[in-house]
Design brief:
The protein is of the alpha/beta class. The protein contains eight helices and seven strands. Helix 1 packs across helix 2.
Length: 233
């Protein structure tokens, strides 16, 4: 927390400024006047990220959210998917996703049955889905040894994906579209992770560095979880 001085900036106002930035995707310098000075908000944001504050908060908040949903605190079902997003004038790592026809980055998320983020990472968009599991989700999966079943889409049919699931003690189940399917059809459990990507409110990637882009997502997930707990309706 900020120093305990009489003129110290309240942590709640700093968090409100961070939430505004993450929700809108605007520049730090564009922070509205109702928030603390942008340098103050950005400074505490980087300090908390460097300390791993949001990464440590995310599992605790997920467990509390699951209790609120009348579920056991440790999940057994994992849903994994990726989302390719455009980069907004950044000079950091990025790539071209031939399937989505865009230049940017790819977010890899592991969520539970309610859509709560259990692990998340960011890689260049040119990385194939089947190559993202071991490089992106290994560390996050270790925090949830209770997971027993992984649901994935057709991009994760490779044998290396099955081996990754087996190594982490999960069964590998792929949900694919029917060969004659036309138009939009809701696929079993796949809509949960798509909804989670929509909750984030981050349509484009504006972080220059790949590590910062990765650290932003646990921050978003933590703020979303805290907001849901404070406003259950």
């Amino acid at each position: 927390m900020p120093p305990a001085r009489l003129d110290a900036t309240p942590a709640r106002r700093v968090l409100a400024g961070i939430a505004w930035h993450l929700r809108t995707g605007g520049a730090w310098r564009a922070l509205p006047a109702r928030f603390p000075a942008w340098r103050t908000v950005y400074g505490w944001f980087r300090r908390w990220i460097d300390k791993g504050l949001f990464e440590s908060l995310m599992p605790a908040l997920v467990r509390r959210q699951r209790r609120c949903c009348d579920r056991r605190p440790t999940p057994r079902l994992a849903i994994i998917d990726t989302q390719s997003v455009k980069c907004v004038g950044v000079r950091g790592s990025r790539g071209y996703d031939g399937a989505k026809k865009l230049v940017g980055r790819k977010r890899v998320a592991l969520v539970d049955a309610e859509g709560h983020i259990l692990a998340v990472a960011v890689v260049p968009a040119n990385v194939q889905d089947r190559d993202t599991l071991s490089s992106a989700l290994d560390d996050g999966k270790k925090q949830w040894p209770s997971l027993r079943l992984a649901i994935l889409d057709g991009g994760f049919t490779a044998e290396r994906c099955r081996e990754w699931c087996n190594i982490h003690g999960m069964r590998h189940h792929v949900v694919e579209k029917e060969p004659d399917q036309k138009g939009f059809v809701v696929l079993g459990r796949r809509w949960v992770v798509e909804r989670t990507f929509g909750w984030g409110g981050l349509l484009r990637e504006c972080a220059r560095r790949l590590d910062v882009a990765t650290d932003r997502l646990p921050c978003v997930a933590s703020l979303m979880a805290a907001s849901a707990l404070n406003n259950p309706d």
